[in-house]
Design a protein that fits this description.
Length: 497
């Protein structure tokens, strides 16, 4: 979407669709001006009760004869003059985005200052609105023919003008830039997530990372192949790809734009490009959704794209542990014991608990960056969906300040996360009779024991783990990757500068 920021009275705009926010009690200035221009037309309509003022409702008025605008879209801002709550604002943006999607016009203009949200700046409101529009207009169309029943809906809108007072224009522009970078980054993550496993395999991800580095001077991509990983002793990671025809890759995207010598932040994504479960084969129902098992990796790509677009003055390493988990004569068996790069031995009791096996060697490898912090992002456990559903990302950490920074970023970005506890009593569930640890900790507290496993490899630095099993994609009619937690992570990085 093309966005522009413009100053000037809303009622004087020549636009195919002018969008205003209206309260039941008093009309905002732009609407009042339009009302007098139309000899009380607006007030009349509102008095008639044509608009339900609960947030999320709106009213489209066509071809208002007395104003330069062709259409007027009124957004309900509530029964009184109070600012919207966050929840009300969410409903408003979802409704607005869907109205814009079906609008039969090339451009529309929004009086952005009409929208007020409790305790939030115009910068924040602009950013969230832009993010919502970018999210709604995303289409994954590369495998659809553009005719026939399965064809995607045609979208006419190409340009949105954000109308704001001259004194606020700079703030709106700044919010717009962030909203677009986050929205675009999120959509990059969605596309990688939506790609099927036969196309998006570990080498594909590595090639994407190399291509990104080619376009941007501040980014360097290094890729380790299986031979190089084997030389480093990454037998845990390699045990996952053992059954696959696809070779594993460890991808490191190094973004250097901060102070020289400043410790980098490392983001590490689980990149299982397809998870069959391996010899501990998954049941067939919805197994296609295991193409989304690289959504952690996809979110790392999304964040890298966003920070490049925003040119953030920080050092960030985007790592991806990419492998495909398949059964075959060469696949790892339940009971196999492997030695990780750290030297710790692991008894693999279930080959479907593969995410932690690729992440643990990558966590050890991350030590060489002497990171300020490492955050891994992984569709790690079905148990996380049981605990938090599809609304909230699980957060576990060995460092309280880091956990707090992430929680606060998640609130600010409206990309919710919730911290779960860790502790020795949970770690003990991983005890093995035959090796230093098992790769599963039994049915109780599966998300926590998975994090406790990872923590054994992350003792050298502040570390946090985001379990996005429930939030990375949607199932059913709306099946598709969500691009979460790109907004939270970009906010976390923005808060660093
Ligand atoms: N990728 C899955 C986790 C998953 C399952 C995410 C369903 C989203 C939806 C992961 O590799 C896995 O299979 N985990 C197992 C762990 C168990 C064997 C301890 C799980 O959650 O069942
Ligand atoms: Mn699995
Ligand atoms: Zn998995």
């Amino acid at each position: 979407m093309e966005f522009v920021v413009k100053s000037g009275a809303a009622e004087k705009q020549k636009t195919a669709c002018l969008i205003l926010g209206v309260h039941k009690k008093t009309l905002p200035p732009s609407a009042t001006a339009l009302d007098s221009l139309t000899e009380g037309y607006l007030a009349d309509i509102l008095k008639r009760g044509d608009l339900d003022f609960k947030p999320g409702h709106s009213l489209m008025l066509l071809h208002s004869r007395h104003a330069p605008v062709e259409r007027l879209l009124l957004l309900a801002m509530g029964e009184n003059d109070k600012p919207l709550t966050e929840a009300g604002f969410n409903k408003l943006t979802v409704n607005l985005a869907s109205q814009l999607k079906s609008l039969n016009a090339r451009e529309a203009s929004i009086a952005i200052e009409d929208i007020n949200v409790e305790g939030k700046s115009l910068h924040w409101i602009t950013r969230q609105l832009v993010e919502a529009i970018e999210y709604a207009f995303y289409q994954f169309s590369q495998f659809k023919n553009d005719t026939g029943k399965g064809a995607l809906s045609k979208i006419s809108l190409k340009k949105v003008t954000l109308l704001a007072d001259r004194k606020n224009a700079e703030e709106v522009k700044a919010g717009l830039a962030q909203g677009q970078a986050i929205g675009n980054g999120r959509n990059v993550a969605r596309t990688l997530g939506n790609l099927p496993g036969n196309i998006c395999h570990p080498t594909y991800l590595a090639d994407e990372a190399k291509a990104l580095a080619k376009q941007h001077a501040k980014l360097t991509t290094k890729v380790l192949n299986e031979k190089q990983m084997s030389d480093l002793g990454m037998s845990s990671l390699l045990s996952v790809s053992a059954g696959s025809e696809q070779e594993a890759r460890l991808i490191c995207m190094e973004f250097k734009n901060g102070k020289r010598g400043a410790k980098p932040l490392v983001l590490l994504g689980k990149g299982i490009t397809f998870d069959t479960g391996g010899i501990s084969l998954k049941p067939g129902a919805a197994m296609d959704e295991m193409k989304f098992d690289m959504c952690g990796a996809a979110s790392v790509f999304g964040v890298m794209n966003a920070i490049i677009e925003l040119d953030l003055p920080i050092n960030v390493i985007g790592m991806v542990a990419a492998a495909e988990n398949m059964p075959s004569g060469k696949a790892t068996r339940p009971g196999d014991i492997v030695t990780s790069m750290s030297g710790k031995t692991i008894e693999i009791l279930n080959t479907d608990a593969e995410g932690r096996l690729v992440l643990c060697d990558a966590l050890t490898y991350a030590e060489r960056y002497k990171p300020e912090a490492v955050i891994d992002i992984a569709t790690l456990t079905g148990a996380c969906i049981v605990a938090l559903g599809h609304h909230t990302t699980g957060l576990l950490s060995n460092n309280e300040p880091l956990a707090e920074e992430l929680i606060s970023a998640s609130k600010e970005a409206m990309d919710r996360a919730w911290q779960l506890p860790m502790g020795e009593e949970y770690t003990r569930q991983l005890d093995s009779n035959f090796a230093d640890m098992a790769n599963i900790g039994g049915p109780a507290a599966g998300t926590i024991t998975a994090a406790c496993f990872l923590a054994k490899f992350a003792a050298a630095y502040p570390w946090a783990h985001l379990d996005i099993a429930g939030t990375a994609w949607q199932s059913g009619k709306e099946k598709g990757a969500t691009g979460r937690p790109v907004p939270m992570l970009v906010q976390y990085l923005l808060n660093k500068i």
